[in-house]
Each structure stands twice: as C-alpha cells, then as structure tokens.
C-alpha cells in the first residue's frame, strides 16, 4: 500500500512508513516492559481472596487487573474468566507468548479459573493461592502445563494486530 501511495506521489517514500512501524513496535515493547517491571514490584505480596491492592493482598485476577490498570492504563474485568473472554484481548498460542500476555489455567476444575502475566523465558508471575505470595513460576512445569487453558494479548501492549477473516470476524 505504501509503495502504491509513493508511486502515485501521495507519499514521498516507504521510509516514513517503516520508521513509523518501528516506532509503534518500540512503544508496544516499552509498554510490555513497563507492565512486566510493574508486576515484578509486587513479588512477595500475600495472596488474599478478593484482594486488589498491595495493602490488602491480591488474588490472581485482582493482581492482573491492578498491574494492567496501573502500569499501562488498561482496565481489565475483575474475574479471570471475564478477563479471558474480554473482547479487548486477542487469543494467543502458547508458542507465540510475549511478555505482558495473560496466561490462563484450569486450577479449580473450571476453565480460566486462574490467571497470571507472562514475563518471558517460559516464566509467568501470579498470585497463586491462600498462604502464598506473588511469585514467578515456570510455565513448563507439569502442574502448570497440564492446566494451561490459553493466553490473551492486549494488542496495544504488544503491537499485535487482530487477525480478521474476509467477513470481518476475529
């Protein structure tokens, strides 16, 4: 498209488009980095059912909601299943995970009953359960691998375009 516009004299060259794309990619990467850094600041905060802050403690979805809202300004739904089904998030294959993606697990014999934030290198950060604190885990560990339900990405954070079909469906 940019070549067409350049050939028609509507745009000087494709270089500005490439530079703009790199700036968008860099900004998205910076947002993901900010989100992961923010999440790491909560290591050691105790789990609290229904908790939504450092002061009260966090449950899993309270943690992800707090981190997303306070680091990148994206307000997620309150419950993990609602986060997984949010129309603002795009499904991602486990093999395509990027830092800042939400990862979901079936830990209570129901789909999307647990959520964490992927931080890279097969690791994710989450608020696991009563008696534990926010911590980092390896997604390849058998417990987590068996319970992995899927992942979601906020397109603005990782610069992912939503794929659509010819009919405009996701």
Number of strands: 8
The number of distinct helices, counting runs of at least 4 residues, comes to 6
Radius of gyration: 18 Å
Shape estimate: globular
What's the order of the H and E elements?
HHEEHHEEEEEHEH
Structural class: alpha+beta
Tell me roughly what share of residues is in helical segments. Answer: 25-40%
Low-confidence stretches: 160-170
Could you describe the largest sheet, including whether it forms a barrel?
6 strands, antiparallel
Instruction: Give the amount of beta strand, in percent.
Output: 15-25%
| N-C termini distance | 22 Å
Order of strands, widest sheet: 3-8-4-5-6-7
- Overall mean confidence score, pLDDT: 84
How would you characterize this protein structure?
- The protein has 170 residues and is an alpha+beta fold.
- The protein contains six helices and eight strands.
- The strands form two sheets. It has a six-stranded antiparallel β-sheet with strand order 3-8-4-5-6-7.
- A hairpin with a 3-residue loop joins strand 1 (52-53) and strand 2.
- Residues 160-170 have low confidence and may be disordered.
């Amino acid at each position: 498209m940019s070549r067409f516009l350049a050939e028609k004299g509507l745009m000087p060259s494709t270089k500005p488009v490439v530079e703009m794309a790199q700036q968008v990619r860099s900004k998205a990467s910076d947002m993901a980095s900010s989100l992961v850094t923010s999440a790491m600041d909560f290591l050691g905060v105790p789990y609290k059912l229904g908790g939504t802050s450092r002061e009260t403690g966090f449950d899993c979805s309270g943690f992800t909601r707090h981190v997303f809202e306070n680091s990148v300004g994206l307000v997620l739904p309150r419950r993990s299943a609602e986060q997984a089904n949010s129309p603002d998030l795009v499904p991602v294959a486990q093999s395509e995970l990027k830092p800042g993606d939400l990862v979901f697990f079936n830990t209570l014999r129901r789909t999307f009953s647990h959520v964490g934030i992927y931080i890279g290198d097969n690791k994710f950060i989450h608020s696991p359960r009563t008696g534990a604190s926010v911590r980092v885990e390896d997604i390849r560990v058998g417990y987590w691998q068996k319970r992995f339900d899927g992942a979601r990405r906020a397109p603005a954070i990782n610069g992912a375009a939503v794929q659509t079909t010819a009919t405009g469906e996701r």
